[in-house]
Amino acid sequence: MNRARLTASAFAAGGVLFLLYQAARPYADETTLEGAAAMASPSWAAAHLAASIGFVLVSLGILGLYLVLGGRRLLPAAVVAWLGAGLTLPYYGAETFGLQVIGARAVRDRDVTLIELVDQFRFAPAAVTVFAAGLVLLAVGVVMAAVEIRRSGALRRWSGLPLAVGFALFIPQFYGSPAVRIAHGALLAAGGLWLAYDLWRADGRATAPARTASGTATEVATGTAAVGAAR
């Protein structure tokens, strides 16, 4: 696989993983033992790991866009997204494994007061500040990439828009209902798949053979030559 298609695969897989994160995670009142059982479940860990991998794949995808399309703003976008992922992942790691331990202990001891530790972690000033900063940087990086995609002319102008909107809404969606959160995951999946499709399609146009009048196969010269050059 060439760079364009590897990049497309990263965006597609990342988007789908964000949908799995929102759809597969258990939802319950997290001030109760039912909520503790949800946090202690394997599906809780699996869902949050899916989101963590999604952050990594989208960040790598932006680097791939730089390698495929060039563009002076795509490398800074990739760096900003990497910084954002780096700041976000420690918090997600604690959500994945730390909260699972707290939930399991609360269920085992039938002690609902242990769940207070969850909010003590989540809203600790240092933890929540680093987490919020990471998500903001990720959103900025994806928006920068979407703007550069629009300017490049190699892909459809709005190819990066749905993914950019999804990342811009990452913090607000935490305050939504389960249905809103699953819809947010669907938006990220649609954004990742749309961008992946456009990259794959543009790469195919840049390298597909065409018949000349004499029947000889030649490469199609298109406006997506930058994509073809990344092979």
**What percentage of residues falls in helices of 4 or more residues?**
over 70%
| Overall structural domain count | 1
Instruction: Output the strand order for the largest sheet.
Output: 1-2
Mean pLDDT: 88
- Secondary-structure class: mainly alpha
H and E order: HHHHHHHHHEEH
Number of strands: 2
**N-end to C-end Cα span:** 8 Å
Main sheet record: 2 strands, antiparallel
Shape: elongated
Uncertain residue segments: 209-225
Q: Work out the strand percent.
A: under 5%
- Please count the helical segments: 10
- Structural Rg: 21 Å
Question: How would you describe what is shown here?
Answer:
The protein has 231 residues and is an all-alpha fold. It has one domain. Helices cover 76% and strands 3% of the residues. The chain has helices at 3-24, 33-40, 42-69, 74-109, 116-122, 125-152, 161-168, 170-173, 178-207, 225-229, and strands spanning 209-211, 217-219. The chain has a two-stranded antiparallel sheet with strand order 1-2. The longest helix has 36 residues, at 74-109. The radius of gyration is 21 Å and the shape is elongated. Residues 209-225 have low confidence and may be disordered. This is DUF4386 domain-containing protein. Keywords: Membrane, Transmembrane, Transmembrane helix. The chain crosses the membrane at residues 44-67, 74-92, 123-146, 158-176, 182-200.
